[in-house]
Automatic annotation (TrEMBL):
Location in or out of the cell: Cell membrane
Transmembrane portions of the chain: 15-36, 56-74, 86-106, 112-137, 144-164, 176-194, 215-236, 256-274, 281-301, 313-333, 345-368, 374-396
Residue ranges annotated for the Major facilitator superfamily (MFS) profile domain, each copy included: 17-400
Family membership: Belongs to the major facilitator superfamily. Nitrate/nitrite porter (TC 2.A.1.8) family.
UniProt entry tagged with the keyword DNA-binding: no
Entry-linked Pfam families: MFS_1
Protein name: NarK/NasA family nitrate transporter
Keywords: Membrane, Nitrate assimilation, Transmembrane, Transmembrane helix
Membrane topology: Multi-pass membrane protein
Organism of this sequence: Kribbella koreensis
Length: 407
């Protein structure tokens, strides 16, 4: 960065940069989650032919794969080129699959899978925003700042609340055309407003060597496992909860989408709270508490309690726990990772979180197709949270002080 550009960047407010990045994350996540609310609707209406529960699970999970694995590369590219370049690129490129879906794929299951695959590009925006925001804030505020940015995952709530309604009232193309227009506007606006933080360190080694080096850091694989459970659990519920509520509790697609939005809102609110608490109390207590709540509430939910009582409380408590755990995980990364490596580590950890959300819907669909019960899937979630809790209280607890002392 030249002295002139550094001076101009220094005049930008970190909070303005955080706000614009968070908006971009929300818009991209809104796009990323477009297909999820439509899965149960397509199954009910028969628009795409006769779909099984596994067909719907695959359709809503495919964008998650690309959005997850793509973060590994996009995180490394963000370390190299900065968020000011990568945010407009990711947002602009995603407009292409949006238009493909709107005009070519809405009456074909195979084409919908193809479009959903490339729609996953929007999910990589997470790996752009974390290193971008991290560089703008001092260490004692990074947990809160990244937690606020992470609240952009509430874009999935926008999708849940609007997609089915727009489809019913304005036609099947409407949700896609509207998000495409919003993405295009954001791509242009972010190019004009965003600036990378002054003094940002640009890595000089190759992308492949940086990915390899970051993968060998102890904090990387530990955070990958924690985030696969915390954020993976959130993604799994946000993409599969409408189908689960429709099948297990016999709700309408619109009612199921509204309840899923409530789950998302709670998780979104708790993500910055988790980051803030991790700044104040340390990440370990926040993570341990969150995983403990998931252990109990997933076990309760396995019994399919009625939604008007214990069932709703259990799901909302899990939403709060998963949201706070996601925020605390990245507060931990920000505290113990060199700033020039945050993007690369974020890409790997974000990929693990996304993949953590890809597998459960497939398992739930497969198990339900053979047992007509979701209990096994929810007990598996409870057991996985037990393992994450043990990891947090043993290995991660021992690693955290050592890593902090090294900086």
């Amino acid at each position: 960065m030249t002295p002139e550009r550094r001076a101009r960047a220094a005049t930008r407010s970190p909070w303005l940069m955080l706000a614009v990045a968070t908006i971009g994350f929300a818009v991209n996540f809104w796009t990323w989650a477009l297909i999820s609310p439509l899965g149960p609707l397509y199954r009910t209406t028969g628009t795409l032919g006769a779909l099984t529960e596994s067909d719907v699970a695959l359709m809503v999970a495919v964008p998650v794969v690309v959005g997850s694995l793509g973060r590994i590369v996009v995180g490394g590219l963000t370390d190299r080129f900065g968020g000011r370049v990568m945010f407009p690129i990711i947002s602009g490129v995603t407009v292409v699959p949006i238009l493909f879906l709107a005009f070519f794929a809405l009456d074909s299951y195979p084409l919908l899978l193809v479009g959903g695959f490339f729609l996953g590009i929007a999910g990589t925006a997470f790996a752009v925003g974390v290193p971008f925001v991290n560089a703008w804030f001092p260490p004692d505020k990074r947990g809160l700042a990244i937690g606020i940015f992470g609240a952009g995952m509430g874009g999935t709530a926008i999708s849940a609340l609007t997609t089915v309604k727009l489809t019913d009232h304005l036609g099947a193309k409407a949700p896609f055309l509207i998000t495409g227009a919003v993405l295009a506007c954001y791509a242009a606006g972010s190019w004009l407003i965003l600036r990378d933080a002054p003094g940002r360190v640009v890595p000089t080694t190759s992308l492949a060597s940086r990915i390899s080096a970051n993968a060998r850091l102890p904090i990387t694989w530990q955070a990958c496992l924690l985030y696969a459970v915390a954020f993976g659990g959130y993604v799994a519920f946000s993409v599969y909860l409408p189908a689960y509520l429709k099948t297990a509790h016999h709700l309408t697609p619109a009612d199921a989408a509204n309840r899923m939005a409530g789950f998302v809102v709670i998780a979104v609110i708790m993500r910055p709270v988790g980051g803030w608490l991790a700044d104040k109390l340390g990440a370990i207590p926040v993570l341990a508490t969150g995983f403990g709540v998931v252990v109990v509430c997933a076990g309760i939910s396995a019994g399919t309690p009625p939604l008007h009582g214990v069932g709703t409380v259990a799901f909302l408590a899990m939403a709060a726990a998963l949201g706070s755990g996601s925020g605390a995980t990245f507060a931990l990364i920000a505290q113990v990772t060199e700033p020039s490596r945050v993007g690369g580590v974020t890409g790997l950890v974000g990929a693990a979180g996304g993949l953590g959300g890809f597998v459960p819907p497939l398992i739930m669909g497969y198990v339900y197709g053979r047992t007509e019960s979701y209990a096994i899937g929810l007990w598996l979630l409870s057991g996985t949270a037990v393992l994450a809790l043990v990891l947090t209280l043993t290995v991660v607890r021992r690693t955290e002080p050592r890593k902090q002392e090294s900086h």
